[in-house]
Amino acid sequence: MTHRNAQGLEMSIASAEAAAAFDHLVEGFLKNRLDTPLRLKAVLALDAEAPLPALMKGVFAMLSYKSAAVPAALAAADKAEALNPNPREKMYIAAVRAWAGLDWDRALGIWEQLLVRHPRDILAFRLHHFTAFWLGRAPVMREMVERLMPAWDRDDPGYGSMLACRAFSAEECGDYAMAEYAGRAAVALDPADLWAIHAVAHTLEMQGRRGEGVAWIEGLRPHFGGTNNIRHHVLWHQAMYHMELGEHAKVLDLYDTGFRDLGSEVTQMQPDLYIDCQNAASMLWRLQRQGVDVGDRWIEIADKAEARIGDTLSGFTLPHWMMALTATGRDDAAGRMLDALREAARGNGPQAAILRDAALPVCEAISLHARGDAAAAVKRMLPALGTMHVLGGSHAQQDVLEQFFLVAARDADDQAAMRTLLERVASRHPVPPARRAGYRDAAAAVAY
């Protein structure tokens, strides 16, 4: 049977009740609700033969960014295809197949075609937004949201989520006025909208408004209940403000009780989730850079890194794994990780190119530096500075890789390389290097 979803789009599903349950599922995904998997089970209990709910198992598998989850994504696509999908649903299936096949451009292209036909298909939009972000394509994110916004009205279900994505894409493209305006408007509609909260947090960070940033997140923390791991990333942003303010004890407290709380339900559900481990490794590295004793906190991250050797699906996570392995002196494991990465980079597809051009040189540089060869690390990583964005991650997240290169250049006594990095950072970041904790010493030492 055919029913319509909250945006008025036809879907193949048995009842209006099941369609409403699917809307509830999509809302959970958009708003980062911890119970989203349970919402999917509720839809499938009402109709186990609906194509899109069946496919959502594959979507969630791919969102985990684990190679081991790819077969589940393909199996979900097979099942959905056998359930008589309508033309829009067939496009979803094709996009998920391309996504699982690591053909990123094809997946994005299918979602873009779908959105030309159905500009209010918010699920397709959000998957496009996610994928473009983790390919480092902020202009693609922004172009899509701005193209679609005229089709949306303030009272439409999902409008706040569109605003949140508008805010984040604007921030990544340097339009901080629009980012703050759209993000605050989304939070006014829903103070638990973590993606919008996160977009404003990014904006305040990029503008050096650290005290405001702490107040922004602290003021909204009462609304974080029932949310998933994205709340960890928001708290990571709060820790970044405290880092810049020199409040290292507060950073460690947030690490242990906030974004890397090993006893929390969220962490226990997905203890090696890519973004959580990125948060942890990048913050430990920054703390050590500032001379802070981080104790044995690297060990559990290194354990997870070692268990994931050979999984190269998330390019941006790989340098963080390498940081953990080298920080704990696991030279053999680091070597095995590099061997697996080199093998994966030999392919011809877009994922292999990302690994070859960005992930591999950065990981090799981290390994070389840990072995005491800073000059070789600089030489290996220098050509990748202009391509690191393809690993995905925001400007705030990519910053740890830029800081690493600066440290390697300093240790190699390579002032030209230090100047190159400082010039690149200064051209993009509105806060000058002299006012940033990870850059001020180099900025004082090098004319740029």
TrEMBL record:
Q: Which UniProt keywords apply?
A: Repeat, TPR repeat
**Which CDD domains has this protein been placed in?**
StaR_like (cd05804)
This protein's source sits in the domain of life called Bacteria
> Gene3D superfamilies from the xrefs?
Tetratricopeptide repeat domain
Q: Member of which family? A: Belongs to the TTC38 family.
Q: What is this protein called?
A: Tetratricopeptide repeat protein 38
Q: Which organism is it from?
A: Rhodovarius crocodyli
